[in-house]
Amino acid sequence: MKVFEKLLQLKEKRGAGYFVLIDPDKQEIPQALKLAEKCVSSEVDALLVGGSLLFAHMFDELVQGIKKVCDIPVIIFPGSTKQISPYADAILFLSLISGRNPNSLIGEQVVAAPIIKSMGLEAIGTAYMFIESGNVTSAQFISDTRPIPREKPDIAIAHALAAEFLGMKMVYLEAGSGAKYSVPEKLIAVVKSYISMPMIVGGGIRTPEEAKKKVLAGADFIVTGNILEKNQDPALIKAFANAIHLR
Asked: pTM of the full predicted structure?
């Protein structure tokens, strides 16, 4: 079964899916592996691996290590073509459709596609949309793009519809790592009402209660990252999982 199909099944079974992001630049490999193990025991649905930058040079080693300690999908969340590994289960094949930088729209993707094909890595076409978060995130700065204004849902709708018509499998509304504000529930709800493809929401989500609000607004998958880098308490991870799974 394809990873994408498995994620959809989990989502249907649990109400919504929960992804935890492991950024190679934010923690050492031993710490990352401990987090991965805690995620498995806390019913996290999948792990995302990647980030805006890549100071660490052991991406393959990290992915291999995570695969050894967990049996949930390990999906690459690439910041560039340097973040591709044959040891992962799949890769979010991102196109930054909220921006107008051709390299982030299609340039990096053209370079990455043959590599991904040669690895036999499952590519999940994902429309990546930055949403204004109250500060400039690393991803926005590196990609040299502007986010969609929080109070302009019509712009977000148009971008999400374009992605669906282009045949993408998922849309990812991203406030960014360390965002001051998360993606507004009103924006999530109105975008979801116009599209049929699954929606991922991440960035700036700091509490289980906030995560649950995103799910009730229409998010199909929730991503947390920074909050667990600072606090790897299994009880917190489990609280996020329970809230997202609508328990």
From this structure: 0.96
